[in-house]
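Need the bound structure for zinc ion, inputs here:
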Amino acid sequence: MSSEAELRAYLLEKALLPSGWAEHALVEVGDDGLIARVTTGDAPADAERVAGIALPGMPNLHCHAFQKGMAGLGERRGPSGDSFWTWREVMYRFLGQLTPDDVEAIAAYAYMEMLEAGFTTVGEFHYLHHDPAGRPYADIGEMAARIAAASVASGIGLTLLPSLYTYGGFGGAAPNPGQIRFINPTDRFVRLMERSRAIVAALPGAAIGIAPHSLRAVSTGQLREVAAIFADGPVHIHAAEQTKEVDDCEASLGARPVQWLLDEMGIDQRWCLIHATHMTDDETRRLARSGAVAGLCPLTEGSLGDGIFNGETFLAAQGRFGIGTDSNIQIDAPAELRQLEYSQRLKARARNVMTTTEGESTGRSLYTRALAGGAQALARPIGALAAGYRADIVVLDADHPDLAGASSNDMVLDILIFSAGRGLIRTVLAGGKIAVREGRHHARDAIAQEYRSIVSRLAKG
Ligand code: ZN
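Answer from helper R.:
Posting the output first, comments after.
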């Protein structure tokens, strides 16, 4: 137990608590970065006063940090129809050059931006394991350690999700040259997990899970095996992002990807299906009933031309979802939620789709559902300003002109998501420490300098 002397105290002018909006909430934080208690009323004189409107920090449930360094690549028309698959070739060429130092610096920059943009925990779906020739580094967890170091440098919370990637496509296809840095047979993946678990154990409160990359990158036998070996943590898998993947899965396994996972893997709360874009109504309702989280990455799905998630049906069946930045084409929590709602509006030709209750704020519905889904998928005590949860707090500028017309507290979330955007974010606490003040990360200059020199070198090839 922390003694009174070890607690740091923050007095939040206004805060969204599990019980609803509160004025003058005193949040006391232990050395472990967790909230010891939240009270309202009298505050000690030495509490640090935090002006503004405080929200629980948003979990980012799906990220490939290194892809941040690809900004601007892949936006030029190629000789024939550009698609996810042609973008993937560009991505493979980019990652082929990356050293462990590069990966650490790019990840630190991405994670710093996440904190500035409202994300306080990241789920790193980590598949860039080996050297450019496909050989494990002397430390099999070299790249995992770099991801962990980047999370520490930025202050973001981490759920590390080492990815099992064995094949180049359905039917046990050999990997192509762009994929050799990802590849592990099951036994080596088990060793990688053991090493990754030790790396994560050294971080305060970080978590670990497994990420079988996709049904095209692992065999069904492997998937069953690793889900059984690592039976107590989250399982993330890319599913049904592209129609070609659905067609190939039907041809190879005799079922659509989400249908196959539901029928064969006993999908439950441990699972997070990333994208789940192309589902029939039946798959959508069954996934919702399973208790698994749909890991939606709306900006990336838009960028890559994936398609539109079946949000209306999923929500009507009480489905759980969270949001992820995936390719990091743009790092911005409010923009992810806006793109999610707008894609649903375009699909349904309707408004206020991602809420089910008459009179409910769409912003509140999106924000609180993504908090809960993200927390479940990342298997950490996050997503609420309450005792026992990590002290991850995003504070908005209450004096911003865009909030002048806010006639209710929930309307602040509508303005954050649909109008003002991440420019409203002023202060961010991560694990009880102030990471961002006046919209700027405390280590921005040093992290940006390192990132700039690496990406300019990579751009020269
Ligand atoms: Zn992904």
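Comments: The chain has a mean pLDDT of 96. The first strand starts at residue 8 and ends at 17.
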